[in-house]
Structure formats: structure tokens, C-alpha cells
Amino acid sequence: MIVCVLAFCGIVVSLMQTLVIPLVPVLPGLLGATPGDTAWAITATLLAAAVATPTVGRLGDMYGKRRMLLFSLAVLVVGSLTCALASSLVPMVVGRALQGLAAGVIPLGISIMRDELPPERLGGATALMSASLGVGGALGLPAAALVAQVADWHLLFWAAAVLAAAGAVLVRTLVPDSGVRSGGTFDLIGSLGLSVALLLLLLAISKGSDWGWGSGVPGAMLAAAAVVLLVWGWWELRVPHPLVDLRTSVRRQVLLTNIASLVFGFSMFAMSLVIPQLLQLPEVTGYGFGQTILVAGLVMAPNGLVMMAMSPLSARISRTRGPKTTLMCGALLVGLGYGLSLLLMSGVWQLMIASTVVGAGVGLAYGAMPALVMGAVPRSETAAANSLNTLMRSIGTSVASAVAGVVIANVTMTAGGEVFPAQNAFVLILGMGALAALSALVVAAFLPKRVAAPVPGETEPAPEPEATPPARTVTSGA
Question: Could you tell me which residues come within 8 angstroms of residue 471 by beta carbon, excluding any fewer than 6 positions away?
């Protein structure tokens, strides 16, 4: 029951990523604002999620993962209600930012599973929880498109508030409170420093095309982000209780898993950017299908469903062959899916097959990543480590969105007197997705040969010879 409740909460949170996509074309009219301003309804969620995820993870390790999970769901309820009552831009952006603050639910859920589940159930449960990130996103698009077409758009956010409230009640009733605590004091300076760096980085990535990469503004923000990160790293290595334990994070298993997660985030999201656009472009382009966003969402739905279906297989491979093998198999399958997409672009059913193959690979890989991370960090740092891994995936998806935006804006064609993205633009993006998947495969090949699944009863995993993390104190508390 714990697994079902936590997976449900993960799906509810991931729904927020695609909830407003069907509304994007009509938001300017609904909110009385320009398209550039209404884009902040998406950007605000992204930025808030990036800032909140590592901070909430650390607070969960210190003060209780269940407590921070309930707090995140409560913020999601407030944010959804704010959007449900909004009729102008400012409350909408505020509500969307509050929704983004709940992004830490998935890494917190995985960490609770490590504390509470027996070893034989942990692998499958964490794989399912990790896959909920894609499941909610894939199912949210057609559901949101349907609601937006047949009812008032505010209903989307009323429904989100009800689902989040239901998740909070289920967690409060059925999920026990783990006694594992890391102790120490909260690293406020480290949290502020990382937040500033992430805001600069993601603003430059997400808004670079709008501001113009030649204007110098995005480049200056990226340079500033690099400087802040360097100072932040210097601080984290010297503070007694850092927000992110960099000595643990640079251990080979954790570092390579996070790098693979970043690259994999790019690869996963590239498919989600290309297929809906191909389906909705008019047939006059010669390669578009002229479908509605509802049809596009239905075509993408199997991608999310197969991710969840692959969770048991991911756990089985990790148990018998190790999570390194699972990650490599997932990366190989994603690369195969992109290869198919380059060959099968002439029919809706062909795009669905390619998307489903990519979803299967993502399901395998996402199930392996928490096992790799948890196999190399103490139980008292599980939430923070999983949150950092989730953040790496989010940065990867943000980079994919920015790169795809630049390609689509610059590789164009004219048909029927209108300018559209050229087919070569989508071929190039799909090729990048394939290359990113193969890069993740190469990174995963350098992971330790055999990584055992984490055992809930262990306080700390066996250290690798090349880097031994400093001791941590684990105390019990209510």
C-alpha cells in the first residue's frame, strides 16, 4: 500500500509538467497578456522545481521525509487553488511556481521506500516511483487537452488540487514516519547559493532564444552561474553540514550516475518535443499530419504506460545483473527508438511505435538510477542524493528544450505562404536524442562492474577505494 500511495503522489506531481501545455496557444487571451509573458506560466514551474528539489531533499533527511512530503503536497494544493481562481497573469504565475515547489515529492518517495521496504521489494518499488515522472507527464497531456476542449480551463486546476489533497490524506494515513535523521543544521547559505546558480542557469537556457543568444544576456547569465557554482562548491566543502555532500557526490558511482541522468534527461525529452509538433503541423508541409493536440496526447500516452510496465523488468535486471546493466540496456533501447523514429516518420502509428520503444528504454533506465545512487550513499543522505539526481534530469530536459527551440527557429521552410519548421529540423533533434542516449550508454559503461541493490537495514554502503565519504550521524526520532 505504501508503494501505491507514493507512486500516486509521484504521478500527481508529474501531471503539473504537462497540465498547461494544451492552454499555451490560448493563454494570452485567457489572461489578457502577451505570449511572451504567459510563457512564464511554464518557466516559473521549471525554476521553482529546480530550486526546491535539493533543498527539500536535505530538509527531508534532517527533519523527516514524510513531513516534507506532506509539506510539498500542501504547497501543491495551494498552488493549484491559486491557479483555479486566477483570471490574470500574476496569480497564474504565482500558482504555477507553487506547483513547481512540489517537485521534491518523487525523490522523497524513493527515500521513504528505502527506509520502510524489505530488500526484496525495494528495487521494483523505486523503479515504479521513478517511472511515475514520465507516466504522469504522458497521461496528463491527453487528459488536459480533453478537459480544455469540453470544459472551463479552471477545472484542470480544481482537479489538480483535489488529487493533491487526496494524496496528502493517503500519505498522512498510510505512510509511516521513518526515524532516520541526518541531524546537523540546515545550510542556508548553501541553499541560497545553489538556488541563485540554478536560477541563472535555467533562465539563460529557457529564455535564451527569446532574448537572443547574440545579445550577450544569456552568455553573461551562464558565466555568472558558473562563478556562483564555484563559490558554492568552495563553501560546501568547508561547512560542517553541507546542503550537498560533494565528497560523496564525486564518488564514481554517484558522479557517473548523475552525468548519465543529465544526458538521459535530454534524450528523453527530445522525443516529447518532436512527435507532438509533427502530429499537429498541417499536411501542407508535406510531412505534418494535421492532428489535434488531443490526438497528439493519445499518441504519446503509450510512452508513459510502457514506462510503468517496464518497472518490474528493470528491478529484475538490477537484482540479477546489477543496475549498471539495467541503465546500459535502457540507454541502448532509447537509442534504438530514436533510430526507428528517423526511419518511421510517414504514419501516426509509426511515430507511436518509436515513442513507445523510447518509453521502454526510459523505464528501464529511470528504474536503475535510484538504485545506483542509493547503493553509494548513507541512508541519512538518501533524500538529498535522490533530489540531486532528479535535478540533473530536469537540467537535461531544460537543455533539450532550449536546443530544440533554437533548431526549430532556424531550420525553416515556407508552405502555403507560411513559415514552418523544416523536416530536417526534427530529424536533427531526433539525431541529437539518439546521440545523447548513446552518450549515456558510454558513461554507464564506466560505472563499477557490479552494484548491489541497497539494503534498507544498512546505515552506510561500503565505501569505494578512491573516495571515502566522511562519517555521518544517524539518530532516531519520531
Answer: none
